[in-house]
Specification:
The protein is an alpha/beta fold and about 230 residues long. The protein is about 35% helix and about 25% strand.
């Protein structure tokens, strides 16, 4: 049985009618931690959006968590996204409800119905990111780093096969970035596959892992220098 979580063969990624990355061949195995780097505008976000089907794969072939991106129907997209956890740079917490209710909203939206099961799941993911004591706080009452931990907890709610973290430390100071990375590292060590887009090269040196780079319309693996 294949342990591949993401597979792309001769894939070209488009933003509107413009090809931003071409001839991508990539395999990501279960349990890997993968950095995605490159300058602004190099195609990192378009790559991520293609994986979670916000952009259609028009050329080449690919599978994500056993979904065929070429043949993906509109009606399949919500089911694909339930097998993915997505963490954004700007947290995207709902400002009008507390931390617990932010997570409850996601569970209800993705088909959960049993109250006690939802309560257990919320407590479990908050505990995993060290935020259980903040469950009743509003987003504006906690720091940016704490909000990002909540966003990571939200990404874990449906026990995803793959976590996509798009610049998760982009709005955080260096110390808080390290704290968020420690949470992601712990999740990865527990068997979760993570693809993280980042501009923060200090984190790559502190937490070395396989790294792929978007540059000049291509995607290729880079060898990190040890310091």
């Amino acid at each position: 049985m294949s342990t591949s979580v993401l597979s792309l063969q001769n894939a070209t990624i488009y933003q509107d009618e413009y090809a931003v990355l071409s001839q991508i061949n990539l395999e990501v195995q279960k349990g890997e931690f993968l950095y995605l780097i490159g300058k602004t505008g190099a195609g990192k976000s378009s790559f991520m959006k293609t994986i979670y089907a916000d952009l259609k794969l028009k050329e080449g072939s690919g599978t994500v968590v056993n979904y065929d991106l070429e043949k993906l129907r509109e009606s399949d997209i919500p089911f694909l996204r339930r097998k993915l956890g997505i963490v954004f740079q700007d947290f995207k917490l709902l400002p009008d409800r507390n931390v617990y209710d932010n997570l409850l909203f996601v569970l209800k939206a993705t088909g959960w119905a049993e109250k006690e099961a939802m309560h257990r799941q919320i407590e479990e993911v908050l505990d995993r990111v060290g935020m259980l004591s903040h469950a009743r706080k509003m987003p504006h009452q906690i720091s940016g780093g704490e909000q990002q931990r909540i966003a990571i907890a939200r990404a874990l709610l449906n026990d995803p096969d793959l976590i996509l973290a798009d610049e998760p430390t982009g709005n955080l100071d260096p110390q808080t970035s390290v704290e968020v990375m420690e949470v992601l590292q712990k999740i990865n060590k527990n068997g979760r596959t993570i693809i993280m887009a980042t501009h923060d090269y200090a984190l790559l040196l502190k937490y070395p892992a396989k790294t792929i780079k978007c540059e000049d319309g291509k995607l290729f693996e880079v060898v990190q220098r040890t310091v």
